[in-house]
Amino acid sequence: MKRLLSLLLLGAALILVAAACGEEEETPQGTATVRPTGTPAATAAPTSTAAAEGYPLTVNDMMDRSVTIAAKPQRIVATSPTTVETVYAVGGSLVAHDSSSDYPPEVSGLPTVGGAYAPDFEGIVAQEPDLVIADSINQARFVQQFETLGVPALMVGAGSFDEVETAMRLVAQALGLSSAAEIAITKMESDRDDLIAQVPAQQVKALILIMDADRRIYAAKPETYVGSLAQLLKADNPATGLSGAAGPYPGYVLLSAEQAVTENPDVILTISPAPAPAPKLSEVLKDVPGYSDLDAVKSGQVHELDVDLFLQAPGPRVIDALREMFSLLYGKTPVVPGG
């Protein structure tokens, strides 16, 4: 009788161990997910426990607004080229975007919701988003309209290299993709440091110019996105500290021909916002009174910058922008590590 009782107790213990093993399933992140005994693995929840526990989530965006996201976003709308590229740079995807975005290629064919400077708020609502990512620089004046959509609206932008990183981290946090973002940011920082290490010892003086529809010329200060990149590459910017009218371009200052002649830069970089057939500023500068006398104009050291990279879509392609600027400032192509 004692032997029989021992066998029965041993059998019961084995059954309990087997049941416990059936209740714990290893997830790809290495954390355990508990499910009822006998539930097939195929019916387990597709998201990890760690991801589910991250929501509801509250973050402070780049306009210092507190934004609460109830659950992991599945339908995301981005409303500017910067925000679109930021979503994809951290591994996310969209259901709609602004009409001016054409990068990355994955956005081709997606519905559009107005322009970057004129969002279509009814169109945004029609997409039934659970998160809207808007531009804290170009769309700050629309913040109240975004707040009335009844959907969390995260405001992010890119006015410098550091702000590109900040925007990526905020978007990644909102989407539950922080690990992917940190990998991308680490690569960006490494590439930036490699470029800076290749800057020649002799400093170059560079003016960065843009012209409005009335043919007034403005110079970019270090506070602008393009100016901050020139500063990273150790260029001497004569517009530093200048004050005056900004016109339609925040961070730019009206520059007279007399001021340009006084500074007489080694290199002039130009940005032309107007699409073809409008002429490029780099092509017409030689015909602008006063500017035609500059040594840089006479020697052919006037170069056009990519308007997308430096004005219309500042963001995660910042390394491409830095490489282009390096080549134009220093007359040589920087070495790319590993290639």
Question: What does this 3D model show about the protein?
Answer:
With 339 residues, the chain is of the alpha/beta class. The chain has 2 domains: 51-195, Rossmann fold; 206-330, Rossmann fold (3-Layer(aba) Sandwich). The chain is 36% helix and 16% strand. The protein has helices at residues 2-23, 49-52, 81-89, 121-126, 143-147, 161-175, 178-197, 225-232, 257-263, 281-284, 295-298, 307-312, 318-330, and strands spanning 24-26, 32-34, 57-60, 66-69, 76-78, 96-97, 114-115, 118-119, 131-135, 153-156, 206-211, 217-220, 252-254, 267-271, 302-304. The strands form 5 sheets. It has a 5-stranded mixed β-sheet. A 4-stranded parallel β-sheet has the order 6-5-9-10. A hairpin with a 2-residue loop joins strand 7 and strand 8. The longest helix has 22 residues, at 2-23. It starts with a helix and ends in a 9-residue tail after the last helix. Mean pLDDT is 86; it is low at 1-51.
Describe the secondary-structure layout.
Elements: H1 2-23, E1 24-26, E2 32-34, H2 49-52, E3 57-60, E4 66-69, E5 76-78, H3 81-89, E6 96-97, E7 114-115, E8 118-119, H4 121-126, E9 131-135, H5 143-147, E10 153-156, H6 161-175, H7 178-197, E11 206-211, E12 217-220, H8 225-232, E13 252-254, H9 257-263, E14 267-271, H10 281-284, H11 295-298, E15 302-304, H12 307-312, H13 318-330
